[in-house]
Amino acid sequence: MRVFVLDLVFFAVLVLVAVPLGRFMTRVFAGENHTSRKILGILERGIYRAAGVEQDKEHTWRAYAGAMLAFSLLTQLVTYAVLRLQHKLPFNPTKLDAVAPWLAFNTSVSFTTNTNWQSYGGETTLSYASQAVGLTSHNFFSAGVGMCVAIALIRGLARSQRDTLGNFWVDLVRVHLYVLLPICLFYALFLVSQGVIQTWEGPASWAALDGSTQSVLRGPVASQEAIKMLGTNGGGYFNANSAHPWENPTPLSNFVQMLSIWAIPAALCVTLGDMVKSPKHGWAVFGAMTFIAVLGIVAATWFETKGNPVLARAGAAVATNLEGKEVRFGVPDSALFTVVTTGASCGAVNAMHDSYTPLGGLVPLLNMQLGEIVFGGVGAGMYGILVYVILAVFLAGLMVGRTPEYLGKKIDSRDVRFASIYVLIPAFSILLFTAAGLLTEAGRSGIMNAGPDGAPHPHGFSEVLYAYTSATANNGSAFAGLTAFSTQHPVFYSLTLGLAMHVGRFPLIIAVLAIAGNMAKKKLVPAGAGSFPVDNTLFVGLLVGVILIVGALTFFPALAIGPIVEHIQMTR
Amino acid sequence: MAKNHRKQHSLWDPTILRPAIAESFKKLDPRTMAKNPVMFVVEVGSLLVTVLFVRDVLRGTATDVRFSVQLIVWLWFTVLFANFAEAMAEGRGKAQADTLRKMRTTTMARRIRRSGEETPILTIGFDDGGEEIPATELRRGDVVYVKAGQMIPADGEILEGIASVDESAITGESAPVVREAGGDRSAVTGGTRVQSDWLKIQIGQDPGAGFIDRMIALVEGAERQKTPNEIALTILLAALTLIFLVAVATLEPYARFFKGSLGIAALVALLVCLIPTTIGGLLSAIGIAGMDRLVQHNVLATSGRAVEAAGDIDVLMLDKTGTITYGNRQAFQFLPVAGVEEQELTEIATLASLADETPEGKSIVALATERGIMPKLPEGATFVAFTATTRMSGIDAGERLLRKGAGDTVTALVRSKKGVIPADLQGLVARVANEGGTPLVVADGDRVLGVVYLKDTVKPGMKERFERLRAMGIKTVMITGDNPLTAKKIAAEAGVDDFLAEATPEAKLAYIHQMQEGGRLVAMTGDGTNDAPALARADVGVAMNTGTQAAKEAGNMVDLDSDPTKLIEIVEIGKQLLMTRGALTTFSIANDVAKYFSILPAMFTGIVAFQVAQGGPRSSAFWALNIMRLGSPTSAILSAVIFNALVIVALIPLALRGVFYRPLGAAALLRRNLLVYGLGGVVAPFVAIKAIDLVVNALHLA
């Protein structure tokens, strides 16, 4: 039980953070006058004036989606250009060359979609300018976009007989100005206090004991680190990500990093409850998320603590599986971090998921396949779980003999259609791209783990499955065994993973906004004894059941071929 | 429940069963199947496996023929069983429709004026005027003449005449009812029989558009359009089918990566087991059976949508008179005027009522008897019946005229006899009226004796019914023409949630509008022409069969029993319809867990990469997932497919009868159904597949 003490403390602090942050966000998105607005309001209005945004002109769902798409794709293009031209741009102390075209495509897509899949080694491929301008900006934007979409959906649920969902540009400006930027400012300072570096200078060099010169690359790390976590981006400055001592130096920084991944997603539950005027419903959603999170944490911690029986049989002294883990963090911290990062669409890692035991590694895989709704990506987790809520309520409604209604809105075939699309697309993307990866020579060449004599091995299968799961779910973490970019095969993974990331992001957002638009138009039906309550434990159980059943049924065969069979082979 | 249920067909009635079996094969036509995406996938898969098997047999490369043949047979059974469920439902509907249709086809009609003609209606009293034509040739606006003993050829409105009509063919009520021109009792239904006198009826609609015709089309399933909830569910089922299609189809490339192959037969078997065939196969049967149940309750609906809306009703508006209370009022008190003993008033009132067969008259006698007053009818007394013009009744005993009736006519009679109207009469009449009662003034010749207080009484059992509605989350509203004070009294007595007093048609309409603006769905019953706008406005408008044609046209259901409390059953049928769909969907999806555990281990045992030791299937790492310990890979696959096919047949009775419904709150209902169909759906197939596997192995089938 002692291994779970950390987890209990973690959830307690998470609630303490989520409540005030969630309430604050409600006020931010409602455009209320809060303290920070009194200070930054001039800036907000200035931006609107400069950009020609009419603050009071709201968007229909189509216009909202259009603005979101235009903004995302345009900024993606800018990042692509920056990466391709980094050798001609300033702030490139190590004189790095232009990023290869397909790698630049993959990376720009990756950061635009809040995935932060890194086919490149951070510090050895990208200049300071590329990291700061090309990537860090997206760390903010992609997080902001996710939150805007979640808020638009919640507005759609809260409103009745309206055609509009709010103004995308206004939401985007507010989320940056009042939520992301201020928190990151203080957060980065905190990280510096823990020992995270923040410098524009080149690599640090010194003479090693043997007389050779050793150099370690540096850079503006703390500023990127803050939004990497808070915005559930996960793209590390260093290749080793949060296992690197300059990204994650102390137990406290590790704790706060995990906390910051789930802070906004958890707070959005409070915002949901506030905005739909049913705080208990917000907590019910929070409860369902927590329940699934706890399942994952217990499973991951359990299997990692139990370790590898093959090693035990070989007479290894330590039974717990510490391969690929930072000894500084050990099993509990690593397991919790893994669940947190894959439950959200973060993808930052402080341990190598590839080195987990088969079933320990199944946890992050399944977490992503369930759609990252265990608090989830900033915004993305909220709108993801709300889609599941709609499906759950639809089934529940039928079972109580009423046209299903959610928060007083009757669920019609249009809602079910878009919710189905939301569930269908990721399943298609993950399963079909994995098949493509396994069937092609280019795909197979990236696989590291094979059985004796190079025979195909379940772990090799899992590497490919993990890659497309991570890309589609916009997570960005990897079973690092997979070589996603090589000079022999520069196109295959860059292209297919890039496509998977796009497919896993924008069509889903459009489906969500379509639901939001449809919901906003509906009349509110007052709840009665005949309508199904969405704020009790029964609802939580139903929601968890629908999520697990739908996710498990979709991915059980693939998981059986990968981690499950690997586990059986290992224990035989 | 309705007093007189239409004949129910037993579930396995051979007259329905046999044609249904033939129909199951006819429905294999892919054009028909394509309407049901889930079962269409099963059919395509079965066809694929069959064609490949035949090809292999012809080439001489077929392996494991016995297993393949059984698999193919059971795959086709899956499709056929689903078709059979639908055919059964349609067959039961057809049986209902045939009964309805019989009323129509044999009828001949005597047309006395064609639609659109301006000629005067032929004079009455002869049999050879007009033309004799089949009822099916009648057009809207035609006028027909129907005399005693003849069948009314089609729905219509009485233009002239008064007759007693036997409506038992539709309502099951044996007592004939009076139908007459003008007023709220002028509508007649095709298929009913005139018992006395004659009627001239203007036909209400072209053939094929009457209520019975619409209902025939609906119960036969021919005109059945998918309801909104059914469409939404079909989308969800199609999405699940697509997900499983991809999840199964990608297994082959995954197997290829491990240098193996799974084979089409096993993949199709897995796919068919995973996609929601249980609900997919029973979905249309559930819908048709819902309509069928409605007909059994003697309610005709114009659309399936209306039935579904009934399940969603939040507010139920019920007329007070005839629904909540007995329309006929009962004697409650005898109120003598000053100077008259109550004894005398009671005696005279009773004498005036002795020969009176109306419920009011009988209740006066009953009340008097209760008080020990039983006067004898004087010798030679003749009974004077109530008429619409005199509005009073009583007896003539020699010179004495004993009367009871409406205040103004009785006092007019007394005045004509030079009698004096007591000063306090007006006060008594006003008092009774103010309390919501009906005052009957009693007179003996030129003397006014007093007033009989007739009071409306609430029907027994109403309170319990409203209690039940409240448990379902439905608010009841009583509509009455009474003043608010009286309305409040009766509302409290009956236990309704709210009342609408002094209700005019406009007030009813406004009330419905106000409820709907608040997002509530409103149901109401009505019979009069002035109810028509409100019936049309309400989400569920149930017109009484005794009502006017206008009322019937405006509503979306007609209750042949003319029982306004029938709405409660209609609501329950609507809810039951949705619940059956939800329960079977949940059951269907929950089943997949066990099916995975039986088929998946079996499929992969042949792939060498997963062997953990030398030897047969048992040495595969995948066989460790065979947690049910099924006999062999082939028996595991076969058992799952057999279970999947049989479960459709096993659930046909549930689909046709609907799940058990008890009026409970939503949370309690959900908990119960989740337990039964969710948890039960996970557990049951583990047990059943294991049992089938034991049989399959015992018989050495695989």
Can you walk me through this structure?
The complex is a heterodimer of chains A (572) and B (702). Chain A is mainly alpha-helical and 572 residues long. Chain A has one domain. In chain A, helix 13 (358-369) runs antiparallel to helix 20 and helix 17 (458-472) packs across helix 18. A two-stranded antiparallel ribbon of chain A has the order 1-2. Chain A starts with a helix and ends with a helix. Chain A is built from 20 helices and six strands. Chain A has helices at 5-29, 35-51, 61-84, 101-112, 122-125, 128-158, 168-194, 221-230, 251-275, 279-306, 309-313, 330-343, 358-369, 380-399, 413-439, 441-445, 458-472, 492-503, 506-521, 537-571, and strands at 59-60, 164-166, 204-207, 213-216, 405-406, 409-410. In chain A, a hairpin with a 5-residue loop joins strand 3 and strand 4 (213-216). With 702 residues, chain B is of the alpha+beta class. Chain B contains 23 helices and 22 strands. In chain B, the strands form four sheets. Chain B has a seven-stranded mixed sheet with strand order 10-22-21-20-11-18-19, sandwiched between helices. A six-stranded antiparallel sheet of chain B has the order 2-1-3-9-4-7, with no helix packed on it. In chain B, strands 12-17-16-15-14-13 form a six-stranded antiparallel sheet, sandwiched between helices. In chain B, helix 4 (65-105) packs parallel to helix 10. The radius of gyration of chain B is 34 Å and the shape is elongated. The model of chain B is unreliable at 1-7 (pLDDT under 50). The interface between A and B is large, with 68 and 74 residues.
